[in-house]
Amino acid sequence: MNPEGIRITGLMKRYGKGETAVDALKGVDMQVAPGEVVGLIGPSGSGKSTLLKCLGAVIEPTAGKMTLGEEVIYDDGWKIKDLRALRRDRIGFVFQAPYLIPFLDVTDNIALLPMLAGRPNNEARQRALELLKALDVAHRARAMPSHLSGGEQQRVAIARALINRPPVILADEPTAPLDSERALAVMRILNQMARQYETAVIVVTHDEKIVPTFRRIYHIRDGRTHEEAGEGRSFE
Amino acid sequence: MISLAGRDILHAWGKFVFTGVGLGLLIGVTLTMAGVYRGMVDDAKALLDNSGADLWVVQKDTLGPYAESSSVYDDAYRGILGMPGVERAANVTYLTMQVRREDTDVRAMVVGVVPGGPEPGQPGYLVAGRRITRGHYEAVADIATGFKLGEKIQIRRNVFTVVGLTKRMVSSSGDPMVFIPLKDAQEAQFLKDNDAIIQQRRRSAVNPAFNSPGSPGLLEALNASQSANPYVNAVLVQIKPGYSPDDVAEPIRRWKRLQVYTRAQMEKILVGKLIATSARQIGMFLVILAVVSAAIVAFIMYTLTIGKVREIAVLKLIGTRNRTIAFMILQQAVGLGVIGFVVGKISATFWAPIFPKYVLLEPGDAARGFAAVVVICVLASVLAIRAALKVDPAEAIGG
């Protein structure tokens, strides 16, 4: 397996202290290669969201090791000072709802990330337009998010996650609000983009419609993961 | 980098504009309150300017003639005219009262001046008609009274004909002036009505001290003196070129046993004492309005921010700096303030002339008001910024 992508070893997260402490993650191991889309499935309270927040550098794990590409970002403590820049430049997020910024048009919603990183506006917008073309929503480039359909909004959200070419995308129930056809369309896009941009994609989902599309699935239960092969059903 | 605040305002412009208009009306009221105070100060200065006097000679130990009542014998001016440095001196009376015209009445300051007399105290300039030339029953009125040339007005029991109209001749409280001949003004101020005179004569007649057989002419002399009006409220003095007001005032104080105020002293009395309470009252209003404005801006900004918690969480999650988010809220608060100030300034400019008293909107006050609005908006945004900075980026991730 390509050494880049994301590798997690023995990741633990404990909330609280003493007798009231709760171990949400009890030693998670996980590896996702560039261009690969894996599913992360588990019942409510199994630790999915906690794992996603740890991977997204939103909360700090208690112990373990996380490697992003060839760089160790966590090893019993953060190894990177600027977590905000890490989230901006090296991790893409796709949420259950698209959560597009309602007062920015489609292009600027996507271009905002490179702009925040200090890229010139024109260059950022140009990259956003290229992604919109790749995702087949270029015709909605000047539209406001409220004027888009659910599927279009989710494609724009995917474009936003991809704009800085991050090595990993974390997708939190990205197909939950969509019907079967649109859900599969989103998964097809995620797979296509993962391959095209060499990005590792972790999809947290409950959605039975899309589970058969994964080649590998991580099941999480009681804070631990175990890996199994998925159906890897074709989108054709 | 694009302006997040600007985009948000453009996106929800209706909300911002309507909120800004509401805030603007409040700011307009605040600017108008400041204008009311300025108008009072300007009225006081106009009163002094229009009198044309360099010195005000009034009753000893009083702050007359505007801030306190004052009575000076009407022949005192002759002695004052002989004092060194005095160019002109003129008797004057001031009485604020209701002046009747047909079925209505108008609050005005009735000023008694010597017809055709020396300059101090006379109406400054006329916009229509002529000055008072007859000794009785003619009047010159400020146009703010609404009187017309040739109109008949009633002051006490006498009817006067308006022969001239003047402009911006007002008392320190903003009441328009009506100039009438001095003798008529003295009657209006000091003369009792007929019933009161009869009663007073009857009382004097039964008083053995005034009506004793040994003093046959005393009662008639007493009655005659009680019917006379030898008082004025002040003597206005113009000084000769080359003399300083203080140098001319001092001998009058010493030798005439009267109080003399220079222009600077009189301005201090009017602004510092006569309108001081009103100024404090307006100051209190300004403070309350500023606090209310700040509370409104704070509430609006807080509500707008709380309504965007999810967006702020997403912005933070994707790497937006806290200072960028704080600056966005700050810009919006200041933007709201700017909209409010523009609306407020326009509103105040339009409604100021409708006010019954003079409202003076000074550019300096507008500049200070704008600075205050910006400061208030910055302070008011603190609450919203604190709320935004507390938003956890993890809120964007479900579960």
CATH class assignment of chain A: Alpha Beta
- Main sheet summary of chain B: 10 strands, mixed
Q: Rough shape of chain B? A: elongated
The separation of the N and C termini of chain B measures 32 Å
**Count of alpha/pi helices of chain A:** 6
Q: What's the total number of strands of chain A?
A: 10
What is the element string of chain B, with H for helices and E for strands? Answer: HHEEHEEEEEEEHHHEEHEHHHHH
Helix-strand category of chain B: alpha+beta
Low-confidence stretches of chain B: none
**Beta-strand content bin of chain B:** 15-25%
What structural class is derived from the secondary structure elements of chain A?
alpha/beta
What is the percentage of strand-forming residues of chain A?
25-35%
Give the mean pLDDT of chain A: 89
Largest sheet of chain A, in brief, is: 6 strands, mixed
Q: Mean pLDDT across all residues of chain B, rounded? A: 90
CATH topology value of chain A? Rossmann fold
**Sequence of secondary-structure elements of chain A:** EEEHEEHEHHHEHEEE
Q: Could you tell me the radius of gyration of chain B in angstroms? A: 31 Å
Which key terms come to mind for this protein?
heterodimer; A: 236 residues; alpha/beta; Rossmann fold; six-stranded mixed β-sheet; four-stranded antiparallel β-sheet; 6 helices; 31% helix; 27% strand; B: 399 residues; alpha+beta; 2 domains; ten-stranded mixed β-sheet; two-stranded antiparallel sheet; 12 helices; 12 strands; 52% helix; 18% strand; elongated
How do you describe this structure in short?
The complex is a heterodimer of chains A (236) and B (399). With 236 residues, chain A is α/β, with parallel strands linked by helices. Chain A has helices at 48-55, 83-90, 106-116, 121-134, 150-162, 180-197, and strands at residues 6-15, 22-32, 37-41, 63-68, 71-75, 91-94, 168-172, 200-204, 216-221, 224-229.
